[in-house]
Structures are given as structure tokens and as C-alpha cells.
Design goal:
Oligomer: single chain
Largest sheet: 7 strands, mixed
Shape: globular
Distance between the termini: 54 Å
CATH superfamily of the largest domain: Metalloenzyme, LuxS/M16 peptidase-like
Number of helices: 16
Radius of gyration: 23 Å
Strand content: 15-25%
Helix content: 40-55%
Structural class: alpha+beta
Amino acid sequence: MKALALLLILSGFAYAEDDLRLPRVTRAIFDNGLHVIVAEYHELPLVEFHLIVGAGAAQDPAGKEGVSAVTANALRRGAGKLSAEELARAIESLGGRISTTPGTDGTIVTAEFLRDDFAAGLDLLRQVMLDPKFSRDEVRRAREEQAAAIVAGFEDASTVAEKCYGNFLYGSHPYGRPVEGRRSTVSDIGRSDVTAYYDRWYRPNNTTLVLVGDVSAVDAVIRLREAFGAWRARPDAIPLRPTAPEPVAARRVLLVDKPDATQAQIRFGNVAIKRSDPDYLPAQVANTILGGGFTSKLIEELRVKRSLTYAAWSMFAARFGGGDFRLGTFTKNPTTAETLDLALTVEGDFRNRLPDRKALDKAKSYLRGQFPLRLETPDALAARLAEIEFYGLPVDELATFRRRVAAVTPADVQRVARAHMPPPDRVAVVVVGQASQVRAPLEAKFGPVETVAPDACEKLSMPRR
């Protein structure tokens, strides 16, 4: 009997002194294509499951944007012979949890149970993944909750800024679709849309399953195969990933008028790196210096020296087919143009100069020191192992992280900053604030400004007909 297509145990290798020593990791691919990873973690009497189904908002059909999120939210509302209430009680009786998180490239399902409840918890997870009920009433509730959350999001300026920035930068590219969908599309999603999405994408050959816990890896693989081995694959379940988005060629400014906003939210950036790019790690080091913490250049210039804001940050949102670099901050409405101008200047200067050696050493020490702490819990380790498998990263990604960070040079930082952080004259800028106060100063400094209402941002990412 061919139980496993691949079984590979990674442990006991001699790593360099600076490498991170990890629990024993077992990798397997079942006959139905399910990728399975098990890490023995005996410090706590827990079992943590982390599954990634390789479809998200990028796979939402046109006109049904938000169906991936509704599907994820409805997934745990009843399964097998259990109603939504009965399933919730069964999980609660074990002191466990099962949760779902929709995303752009994939959907995450996590579960946690005590070690002694491994069998019972695994069976509940199996029912949720393989036999969700998707009753009409529960799909309706999931849809209505999602629609209400979309409306509520328009009240929060930071949420509006993030959503409008994605819409404005990516446009009709699949990465421009809001994960939660649009008001105009979510309201039309029905049970048949949810079941069609589930039937197409929730398949073993499109899923990664990670188990980290107080288990024997050999026994765990056997139990996982018993639970998920009969899950039927589908040849078209693996999506074609979106091609890289087109970057912004010249600076564009979008003002989102929110008359009740007491402060202005600012976002700007451009298309950037994908998660599997070898430059991702040195780019993370560079970003830490620029806007990755309270000692960053953005904080120093915008908060410490000018008192324009309490917070400023930058990040790489890296995905399968590409992603973006974005910078964010907020300020009083009257100082919006000044704050935006200074943030652009700081970012532009950073990408054009070698980093200060002291700042680089501080960033590397921070990343290297924090990294083991971010893997201390079984759920955190499970998430990172799933990320490695999902994006096809090297299997020693975690073990060698600290050594690779230590090797980053000032020249590396400048190279990736120039390659993946946009020049200030080639960015998409979104400002959310009172147009009556901020529009004229913005136009005086940056030229023409497009002004829209918060709910109009959704139209920016709709396909053009």
C-alpha cells in the first residue's frame, strides 16, 4: 500500500553556530496531493493545526467578489451531522478552537486542541474541511455579517486608507480586490456561489496542512492520512497565479474625503517584491531601518524631530505573483501636505544612500533577536512552516534566518532599497481626511488631486468594460 508519495525527515543536521535549532520536522505528500508537515513540540500538551487552502480573493469570480471570504466564514457554521450550534458546542467542550481567515492568495484554517483530545479534535477539523453543511441560513448570516463589516469599515479612517490604497494601486488586477468583497457584490452571494467556490478550490492537491504539537510524528502522519486520505483531488483545483501587477509610472494622488476625520491618514507606495524573491530577506532588513520600529528613520524624522505624528511605518506586502511596498502614517489635517512631503523625502533619501552602519547593525540585531521569540509557540511555528511550504521557500528558511540576516551588508540594503522601494515621483498616494482642509495644500505641493468618497474607492478596482 502506497501510504505516502514522499516522506522526508529533517533533523539532526549540523548547522552553523548562528543557525536556529528547530523541532524535528516531517514532510509528506499523500496520494491525493495533500502536503503535510508535522513538527514534534513537546513543551506544551497541545496540538496546533494550520491549513492553507491555495485560493483566496484573487480567485473570486467577476461579480462575486467576496465569495472566498463568505465561504471561509461559513465553513465552520455546521459540518457533518452537526449544526452550527452543535459544532460550536463540540469544539468548546474540548476547550479547543477552529477559526478561518480569508486572504488574497489563500485561505487559512487553524485549530487548537489539547494533546489528549487529538483524535476528537482532528475528527471535528476533518468534518469542517471535508463536509461543511453550508446551510442556506448560515450562508445568509455569514454574508450579512460580512456586508455589515464592510459598511462599518467606512467609519474608520485607517481601514479606509488601507482599502483605498489597494484599490488605487492595483486597479482591476486580482490583488486589487478587497478580501471582504464589495457591498455591491457580497449582497448577491448565495449558497450556490459558496458551494461552487468550495467544490472547486477546497481540495487536497490545493492544500497544505501543518501539525505542530505534543505528538509522535509517525503516529500523527498515520492519523492525518486516515482523516484526510479519502479527500478527493480535482485537477483544476490549483489556480493559475496572477501575473505581476503593473507598477505606477508617475505619482498619482487620491484624496478620500471624510468630513468627520479629525486626522488625515496617509499611504503611498508602488508594486514591489513577491514572497519567493531571494531579495525578500535583505529587503526586510532595509525596511526595518526605514520604518520597521520605534527607532526607524521615519519615526526619527516625522515624530521625534518634527512632532508631526505619533506613528509612521513601512512594509512589504509580498504575495505569490508580486506585491507592494507601502508607507503609512497619520497627522492633523492642517499638516497633511507637510507630513506627506517629508515622508516622501525620507523614503527617497533612504533608497539613494548607503545606510548608516550603526543603524544597520541595530536592525540586524533586532531581527535576529526577535526571530526565535516569534517561533516560541506551536501556533507561531506552524504558521511559519505553512508559509514556507505554500510559497515554495527553501526548507532551511527558518534554520538559517539569523545567519543570513547577519550577512546583509550596507551595499545589499542600498541595492534592494533602490530595486524595490519606489522613487518619490513614482508612487500611488492615498490621503483620507477632510477635503475642505487638505485638498488645497495637497494640490499646491503635488499638483492635481483626484477626490472621491470612501465608498467610491471600490470602483477603482472594478474591471473596466
